[in-house]
Structures are given as C-alpha cells and as structure tokens.
Amino acid sequence: MASSSSSPSSSSPTSRSRRRSITTVDAISWYFAALILALILVGSLRANSQADEQPVRGAQLLNRPCDEIYIVGEGETLHTISDKCGDPFIVERNPHIHDPDDVFPGLVIKIIPETPRKF
Prior knowledge:
Layout lengths: L12 H39 L17 E3 L6 H8 L4 H4 L14 E3 L9
Antiparallel strand pairs: 1-2
C-alpha cells in the first residue's frame, strides 16, 4: 500500500492557473487601491490650496453676483443685499429669517431679483 502523500489535484495545471489568476487579481486590486488613495490625496491637496483664499470683504462685496441662492457675507445686512440684488422681499421669501436684524455671515437666503443689478 504505497501511496503518494500529494494529491493529484494540487499539482494539476488547472490548480496552478487558478492560483496564478488569484495572485494576479490580488495584485490588480492593490494597484487600484493605491490609485484611489493617490486620487484622494490629490483631491485633498487641491481643496486645501483653494481654502487658503482670502474671504470676500468690504468693497469686494459689490462685485459678488446675486444668485438665486445667496450666502450673506461679513458686514452685509438685508437692506444692503436688497439694494444690491434688487429684491425688496427677502424676508417674505425666507421664512427661516425670524428677525431681519439677526443676519450673520454664512446665512443662506433665497433671492429673486426684480430689478437689474446696481453697479
């Protein structure tokens, strides 16, 4: 009863090609993981370089566009925004503004200009 200790399937050509394809797939997945990591790093570096820009202040506020969605800047009031954008009904169109005097930088408001923008 002399039998060999290795099974015939472990040395078969299909078993070797299967191991080779698993190794190849594993290597490809690592390359894609490295590629995704590199893209994330490049994206974060780009976002950090854009974050270093100076905020809009003072006379620069006049050059900002009056889009339908407007973000209040430093030193702005609803009156100045209304004059600049030509929307006298800012409070009526923005129910989240309970007190017109309580406007702060970063507040998001909806604007619908009724008159052309003043320059």
